[in-house]
Amino acid sequence: MIATTTSELLWLSLAYALLGFLLLILCLATRWAWWIKAGLVVLVSGFYLLHASVLRGIAGWPADDQLPPRFVLLSAVFDEPSPARHHAGAIYIWVNEIKDHEALDLPRVYRLPYAKDLHSLLGDGIKKARDGNTQIGTTEPRRGQGGLPWLRPGSDDKVQIKLSDLPRAQLPEK
Questions:
Q1: Cα distance between the two ends of the chain
Q2: DSSP one-letter code for 8
Q3: Which keywords fit this entry according to its UniProt record (predicted)?
């Protein structure tokens, strides 16, 4: 994982601004065809937009990606919807992904759309985790109606989250 701080992000942004300035000087000082200059401007601008979206994930912002199939629940923050402010609400969930029956070292935060049943499920899971019962989460696609799956409309990639207690370690017999 790349450790980024605010000052490093500032320096990287300044480097891209310098690149844009050098491109401007290059475009004004050369006699290249206009389409080459326009292509360079589009290329640098597109690269800057790509860089900004990638840095958002590296800098610790919540991921809008799907949750991993198996994870350890660490914490959750509930931002309840407010119709007066036209705010849909969100649930921010901190998890450690489980791969090969081991939790990864670094946690990741995910942003999920607010749902009251998910709020109560995660709230109960956090309470159990605070009581010392580590919570293992799994995700699976929501079950739809019967019939052929390719005839049904898309499900917006919504998944169902299930939480369970981490099984206690079994001690060997004496």
A1: 43
A2: H
A3: Membrane, Transmembrane, Transmembrane helix
> 88 and 161: one domain?
yes
104 to 59, 71, 108: CA distances (angstroms): 18, 9, 10
- CB distance 146 to 97 below 8 Å: no
Beta strand segments in 37-155, E: 70-79, 90-99, 102-103, 108-113, 135-141
Tokens of 167: 């099984």
For the chain, give the number of residues. 174
What total of structural domains would you count in the chain? 2
Q: Across the strands, what pairs with 159? A: 141
**Residue 92: closest CA among 120, 61, 69:** 61
Quick one: 28 and 77 in the same domain?
no
Structure tokens at 97: 């992904």
Q: Specify the pairing of strand 102-103 against strand 108-113.
A: unpaired
Cα–Cα dist 73/112, whole Å: 14
Task: Specify whether the CB–CB gap between 73 and 118 falls below 8 A.
Answer: no
Q: What range defines the domain where residue 53 resides?
A: 6-58
* Residue type at 114 in one-letter notation: Y
pLDDT one-digit tens code per residue, 7-65: 777 777 788 888 888 888 988 898 989 999 889 889 888 888 887 777 766 667 788 88
